[in-house]
Amino acid sequence: MLRRELVVAAAQLAAAGMSPGSSGNLSVRHDDRIIISPTGSDLGSLDPDRLSVLDFDATLLSGPAPSKEYPFHRAFYRRDETLRAVVHVHSLAASACSCLDPWSQRSAIPPLTPYFVMRVGQTPLIPYADPGDPAQADAIQASRSRFRAALLQNHGAITAGRTVREALEAVVELEHTCSLLLQLGSRPFQLLPPEAADRLAKKYDSHWG
Predict the structure, then answer these.
(1) Is 195 a catalytic residue?
(2) Is the dihedral of CA 109, 114, 115, 119 positive or negative?
(3) What pLDDT is stored for residue 21 in this prediction?
(4) What is the mean pLDDT of residues 192-204?
(5) What's the mean pLDDT when you consider all of the chain?
(6) Which SMART domains does the record associate with it (predicted)?
(7) What is the pTM of this model?
(8) Catalytic residue among 5, 69, 169, 175
């Protein structure tokens, strides 16, 4: 079931153009195992019987070699035991925003819409590291901020959720909000009132503030 959900979500991201070429990776957590897309795989053509299965010590238990970006998937699972899925993409708008100065230390993206706060929440910019470098995972795991999404500097986006659907919806909403921010450019814009952002975060169990 989890394997099928991962494959379906990956195909949706590929069809939406959010995972060009062999970029991006997805994982699900099942007990003390992490099932993740293999290295160099096309997210539009994953096989549920050909996924990589690892333990939390990075030992490959079955399947082909995993994505080299496995460490930051594990970092999210270690941060929050309720999380069951992680999605990483190199989508255009999120990748562009990852190259900009962050809006604030706690969130690279400001609260532009209620849906961003509801589905994504605060999204810090994680300092640059080469793809697969465990330093990026270490920064995610060590952060004391509350978040289920992040922009990886000069790289892309990563979201986590308590279900595959939640992680998928978050990364789609994050891409939409990043696109909106780029469309606004240097023009003055309104943010959600702070009390509205706090209210929505509490109602939808999102991390903000």
Answers:
(1) no
(2) positive
(3) 83
(4) 97
(5) 96
(6) Aldolase_II
(7) 0.96
(8) 69
